[in-house]
Amino acid sequence: MNDIVRLTSALLASCIAMPALAQTEPASTETAGQDIVVTGIRASLQSAVQMKKNTMEVVDSITAQDIGKLPDPNVAETLTRVPGVQAYRFGGEASSPVGNGSGLTIRGLTGQTGSRVDGRAYFTAGSREFNVEGASPGMVAGLDVFKNPSAEHIEGAIGGLVNIRTRKPFDFKGLAVSAAAGGRYNDLGKKLTPEYFGMVSNRWDLPGGGEIGVLLAASYAKSFNRGDNTPSVGGTQFRRAIRADSAEYADNVGTGLNLDAAYLGRSDVTYLADVDPTTVSASERQNLLTSVGVQNNIAQEDYTRTRKGLNGALQWRPASGLEFYVEGNYNSYLYHQNYRFLNATDSRYAQDLSTTAFAIDEMLANRNANGGSNDLLSGQRITGGTFLNSGLSTTGGDEHRRYKTFVIAGGTKWAASDHLDVDFDFSYVKADQTQDNRAVTLASAAGLTWDITRDLGRPQQVSITGPDLSSASSWVFNNYSNATNQAWHDDGISAALDLVYKFDDSFLKDIKFGARYATQKDRYRNYSFSNRYLTTDGLALAADRSNAISVASMADLVETSPTNFMNGEAGYSGGYLTFSPDALLGDNVRSRFPNAGILPEDSLAEIVLNRRYFSEKSYAGYVVADFGFLDDRIKGNAGVRVVKTDTFVRAMVDPLNTGNVVPSESTSSYTYALPSFNLTGYITPDTLVRFGYGKGITRPEFSALNPSLIINTVSGVGTIGNPDLKPQTANSFDLSFEHYFSPVNYVSAALFYKKIDGFFSGVSSCQSVAGAPTPTTNTSCSGDQYFITQTINAEKGTAKGIELAGQTFFDYDFLPDFAHHFGVQGSFTYVETKNPLTLNGQRVNTMQPLTSKYSYSVTGLYEDETISARLVYTWRSKAILFGLAANPIDGRYIRSFGLLDASINFNLAHNFSLAITASNLTNQAADRFVGEPDLATGIERQHFMNGRNFGATLRYNFGS
Description:
Subcellular location: Cell outer membrane
CATH topology of the domain at 50-168: Ferric Hydroxamate Uptake Protein, Chain A, domain 1
Domain TonB-dependent receptor plug: 53-160
Strand content: over 45%
GO cellular component, one term: cell outer membrane
CATH class of the domain at 50-168: Mainly Beta
Shape: globular
Number of helices: 10
Number of strands: 51
Helix content: under 10%
Signal peptide: 1-22
Largest sheet: 31 strands, mixed
Family: Belongs to the TonB-dependent receptor family.
CATH superfamily of the domain at 50-168: TonB-dependent receptor, plug domain
Distance between the termini: 48 Å
């Protein structure tokens, strides 16, 4: 509170110290009486700037025209143009890396974003947040990012609030028609996909007075991207090199380590033996090796995203000051991934082994858990060699993840008197999400091995010699898994009453007050299974392949992977045989392998232990007062929102680990008072200082509260909930300085600081899971262990930083006329988060997942009567991936990278226009490295290539 008083006093003093301004109204920036009309990019930028300038809160906006001229396939990507907003990129688009939530980071906080559509809460099934990667920009009238929302906004997001504004019939003067058709092309996947959009809106005067308006809109967009990548196993994996021409090697042939006599005496072959560094002397550790960063797998993934949207709105204004409305919005998003993996198990016999100096100490390995002197554990790492007689397998998989969200709302807006406005709104949201991820693994035929040569560059270079990888005779069928077959079904209602009472001739402009009641119910079911063996007897594949079914006997079920892996930049270019992803659909695998024990698709067995039901009710009331004095050179608002939340959770548990699953129910209730205060001082009419304070909460996700363990038997990862999680709270402070040169041109600088209590943090560790099979994919864990993540409430933390932004067209009198068509936008964000955790007994301060400390965006603009164009470069520094691992060597961070996007629009005759777009011209991706940002190794763990995307769209617009 003392901080608020001091900052408020300083702000008041800076404005009162301008006596001349209190007596004289400054000259307008526009010529009196001149009607200036702006269109195109300038119009969209002007609209966004005026909202930023005139809103009492800290907000940045993007308008529909702006969105329509950006080369963005989804709303999440559009939002990265806003200062302080970052989005993870997965599969060639802005997207969450885990398929849930928006993947957005606002001012350093990930997973703390509130999603609103026209001010209403909007969510994806299984989450509190809407998955904005599934929304198409064509359906959007505008986007607002509130970075420190006031008390009148719906609570639930300490990071920020994203409001999607949709079109309404009364937004137009009369008949308005818009249509678009186009397509996108990915140059790595060599595939063209379509996009369509249509909207019609009209309004009519009614007999006897009043008017009515109707709007209908629909969109369909399909995008295709390809992701070539090279994942590696994490962890330390300490090795000791034994040359085949050494006495130690000879002593262990046929005994001890049972080394292969075939290599005895060769000076170019080395055996890599397991070693525990703590059992050898400090001097010997200098020569110990680690295989960290050896990328054992080759992965080729196709991502097809299909977005469908329907929007309808009816507005009826029977008389001035009274309006009734009904609105509906349907959003469907299908994420479809086909994947083909070549999985290697490198042998311990390496020819021409190459190494380089790389120190793994106890801090990097385990955070110096013993609290000692941080001793060296190994001094070298493997950088290349030919791994003789290695094993290979392939995996072909198909994932369908479908999101459907529908909202219908209705209400009234009534100007009850000159002083009182009354708004009532009721909405119902229905959301469903299903995920079906199935795969078949092929094993090598009896006795087959390969020599695999690796050179660990970026990307690593690989060559493979041995039996033909594209031949059916080289492979046998191994097993079938449906490792993530799950469903979420959610619904909720909300009713809100908002009133505004306006005052005349008073420093108190108005008082806003209201109440809201809302519910959300979440139901979760899991039908996953693994290890259905595709053998003659339905048992695990025998080492001698005696019960194997040859791929050659069912060659129609397999296909060859693409032969342009990473465009040839990784040495090996592909062409290995995998189970065809399309052949996985329906009951095809079940019918072809009757001994595998696969249940029919429509009667899969539920994992009852994972079943979950969650119900929440919230009751909120608020009051906000808007004020202004000194001829409105000082104005702002102050208010408080009080919210009570009641939750009910029913999970299934096996308390005695006997297989007897029983329900476990719990309830909780909590109440928070959330004050807010915003103050703006106008030093001049176009120069202002803005201060904001607000307290907010973020409730934990439903899945994070579930005490059950959910694992993926293919990837080897899992999650376990924490029923003791409490909401995060944050006290947020903002101070910004803004100067507006014109209705379009401005510069701004903002400072922000958030004091956060109870940070949500994911902590990962290797754990044994009773009764679970050995994971299909190698992780950093040993043996049959899984890499398990649990969310906890960490200690108190902070998020603070600086935002700089500005834009201008060069339409200044001292510049030549041709320069007036050019402009530039730019923004820079510095954010630092401290999220204290105790790991392995050590207190660690870490940044939030997916948060870059530095990011910036630079946009070049051009516009004349015929052409408008943008060239956008966006860059971000390194960031931690999902969260801290218990051991830093198991962690992953994203390297810094930049993306270049471009668009050009041509205004054609008869209301037509043509847009040509290009995205990711730099062909960059979020490559993953070993460690974490504060313990960065510079060793690449997974290299990605997604290719470039090009698009063209023909639009028709009539009416305004």
